[in-house]
Amino acid sequence: MPELVFFSGTMDCGKSTLALQRIYNRSARGLQGVIFTRDDRAGEGKLSSRLGLVTDAVEAAPEMDLYSYVVGRMSQGDRVDYLIVDEAQFLASEQVDQLARVVDDLELDVFAFGITTDFRARLFPGSQRLIELADRIEALQVEAMCWCGARATHNARTVGGEMVVEGEQIVVGDVNHPAAEVGYEVLCRRHHRRRMTSASAHAGALSPDVLPVASD
Ligand SMILES: Nc1ncnc2c1ncn2[C@@H]1O[C@H](COP(=O)(O)OP(=O)(O)O)[C@@H](O)[C@H]1O
Ligand SMILES: Cc1cn([C@H]2C[C@H](O)[C@@H](COP(=O)(O)O)O2)c(=O)[nH]c1=O
Fold first, then answer.
1. N or C: lower Cβ tally within 10 Å for the chain?
2. By alpha-carbon position, which residue is closest to atom 16 of ligand 1?
3. Are 146 and 188 in contact (CB under 8 A)?
4. Binding positions for substrate (predicted)?
């Protein structure tokens, strides 16, 4: 049975790497997929991983009908065995409905990869619709870690090094760029709630004010 599968996790947990591995393993067996992405850091029409691998992809623009695009490719005689969609959190919810239609009407597997929640710990529209419609949701095996050592479950945004909880939902950026105007850091829920990034935690640990003081 073909499936709509949502591989979800935080930033930097290996989603794009897994997408590229799936493409590689299928192409080694002669299978051809349509590879969609949206707003990848490497630029338009690219699917890239931090391990340095990159492949060409179709940019899933905001108004693009993904179902019609795939039907169009098949009508031209292109072989389409499956779909990969990276940065799926950025899709409009209608586009996720179109992916479900690809599974049900064209009987193709669709593998979507994306982060579940934004920097405010709110669902992205694309991720919300994937959670609603997916046959299966898979958590990535290589979890990213918070600075405290716990599993990272949340994405923090920093502006000028400070964690923020207000702003546009979509701002393309990366982790491990603390000096960048807009950067990201993965955190556990406890430290996301307390707005403690690795930088502010380090500053806090150095401050005698934050240490417990005995009253007698
Ligand atoms: N220099 C490196 N050596 C080994 N593994 C790395 C290196 N850089 C990144 N990685 C791995 O790549 C993962 C990020 O992969 P990527 O596919 O770009 O993540 P995502 O798409 O989820 O943001 C990291 O969690 C880490 O496991
Ligand atoms: C949390 C959050 C992230 N983004 C952007 C930042 C990156 O460009 C992508 C995530 O890519 P990755 O391959 O999973 O690292 O999403 C955003 O626009 N808004 C956010 O709140």
1. C
2. 14
3. yes
4. 170-173, 184
